[in-house]
Amino acid sequence: MKQTPLLTAALLALPIIPAVAQSTAKPNVILIMCDDLGWADVGFNGNKIIQTPHLDKLAAEGIVMDRFYAAAPVSSPTRASVLTGRHPFRTGVFHANVGILRPEETTIPELLKQQGYTSGHFGKWHLGTLTDQISDANRGGKKHPELLNPPSQHGYDEAFVTESKIPTYDPMIAPFKNNNRFWDYLQSGDSTRIYGTYYWDFKGNKVTDNLAGDNSRVTMDRVLPYIDKAVKNQQPFLSTIWFHTPHLPCVAGPDHSAIYKDYSLEERNYYGCITAMDEQVGRLVNYLKAIGVYDNTLLFFCSDNGPEIGTPGTSNLLKERKRSLYEGGIRVPALAVWPQRIRPNQRTSSPGVTSDYLPTLADILNITVEQKLDGESLMPALTKNAKHRTKPIVFCSDNQAAIIDNNFKLYYKNGVYELYNLAKDEEESNNIASEQPAKLAAMQKLLHQALEDFESSFEGEEYGTQSYKRVKQSWKNVFHTN
Q1: Helices marked H in 74-128 — which ranges?
Q2: Which of 269, 311, 375, 422 has fewest C-beta within 10 Å?
Q3: Are 227 and 239 in contact (CB under 8 A)?
Q4: Residues 6+ apart with CB under 8 A from 6
């Protein structure tokens, strides 16, 4: 299928707004997240096959976070952590397609709105459904009205979103006979069907225009006009850009699959869709520079978890993949750029996590946050080369739990605890639990205390039980053995 003409001409016609027209007191904020991108799927972390020149250049203009973690090994919980600064178990987002981001939670766009920001969300949502009228994606439709939970309920002013996954090229269609994982781009005459996950706008209307071709480009076509409008209105902006790439189904268009034509079906489409996404990051950065706001824009890039099982994605030597709380499932590629504050050509090994985004912005803008936060500000690591963090990072998923306290990591599954020193053993091959019983006991205590605290929040201790009763969830106790 041929690609729909880009909006390039329209964007080039937009007026260039000088930087002085926008307030420079508060930084613009861009939160980019990929979907199932492995730690080593990018050039700035050593990949020699997948071409990511724009991300690599961006990494050189800021700081690469070598030990940055998704708050969960699957999509929805990590996304809840980004917007709230809290562990996803507090709001009942226990797993992908489970629970919702409760409206009572205080989110980044709600905090920034108080500071005069405008906020837009573009790409994947995965924190509730976007329609209660028609069948859509995994959970959307009339059967589950209690799950309706669009970005408009969380402080955003603009949105272009899907509930969950879509093909990374021609996102509205699939082959008539579909393996639901990889296929080469569809051409005229191919037998197709509707994929079944739709794009929705801020008002809850299904979007039907400009949806063909590379999905990362389809997303960015909505981001740039939104940014331009904010700059013209002299408003600082938050742009949350959650690419679907490289979540299955992986499909690369003709130009990007051709780059990897000598590779297998799975590889050429996986690699190609990542390179296509990389081009759109470059397009965004070039646009920010052209309109004069790049220097005062804080941009974060990461993935929501490790690479999917059975894909060409890689986390190098890190143990296991998506759905696992070993390093390969939760340590993700990440960088931060803010030319006015962050020096270029840096790397940090200080641990960070997606729950840190909200506390970081609160720190920068001097905002007092009333709710309990599980993250902490990244600014010491980003600007002062701080080597350690104050708060441990807690992870929970299914029958697994883990806690990272700087170099030490406690891992739990089905009644068994393991202890690792990540400074000496990134591959988690040497369980030192029997060698350090005091450290083991201390971290076990921290982990159990954290889960008790999360359960109190989940049951409404902080803001009541309206959403708790609406969604009708039960607490997920990871310490139950299977």
Answers
A1: 75-84, 108-113
A2: 422
A3: yes
A4: 217, 221
The neighbour count for residue 10, using CB atoms within 10 Å, is: 12
Domain architecture of the chain: domains with CATH: 21-392 (3.40.720.10), 395-471 (3.30.1120.10)
The pair of structure tokens assigned to 47 is: 């990949």
Q: Is there a contact between 342 and 63 (Cβ–Cβ < 8 Å)?
A: yes
Q: Identify whether the C-beta of residue 340 lies closer than 8 Å to the C-beta of residue 296.
A: yes
Cα–Cα distance for residue pair 255/216, rounded to 1 Å: 14
End-to-end CA distance of the chain: 47
Compute how many other C-beta atoms are within 10 angstroms of the C-beta atom of residue 385.
Answer: 12
Q: Which residues are 65's β-sheet partners?
A: 348
Distance, CA of 356 to CA of 353 (rounded, Å): 6
Strand partners, 219: none
Give the bridge partners for 140, in sequence order: 136
Distances (CA, A) of 164 to 24, 75, 184, 242, 458: 35, 9, 21, 11, 24
Task: Kindly state the tokens that stand for 168.
Answer: 């990374």
For residue 481, what pLDDT is reported? 52
pLDDT value of residue 377:
98
Q: Are 159 and 200 spatial neighbours (Cβ–Cβ below 8 Å)? A: yes
Contact 126, 163 (CB under 8 A): yes
139 has which bridge partners?
Answer: none
DSSP annotation of 214 reads: B
What Rg value do the Cα atoms of the chain yield, rounded?
21
pTM above 0.90, yes or no: yes
Q: In Å, how far from its chain's centre is CA 236? A: 21
Query: What three-state secondary structure class fits 193?
Result: strand
Angstrom distance (rounded) from CA 276 to CA 261: 15
Predicted local confidence at residue 179, as pLDDT? 73
Q: How far is it, in rounded angstroms, from Cα 42 to Cα 428? A: 22
Mean pLDDT split into 10-residue runs, the chain, 482 residues: 40 43 76 98 98 98 98 98 98 98 98 98 98 97 97 98 98 89 95 97 98 98 98 98 98 98 98 99 98 98 98 97 98 98 97 98 96 97 95 97 98 97 98 98 98 97 95 93 50
- 3-state secondary structure at position 352: strand
* DSSP state, residue 472: T
Determine the pLDDT at residue 180: 78
Degrees to nearest 5, angle at CA 131 with 36 and 169 = 40
Rounded to whole angstroms, how far apart are CA atoms 83 and 108?
Answer: 5
Amino acid at 330: I
Q: Which helix (H) or strand (E) holds 278?
A: helix 265-290
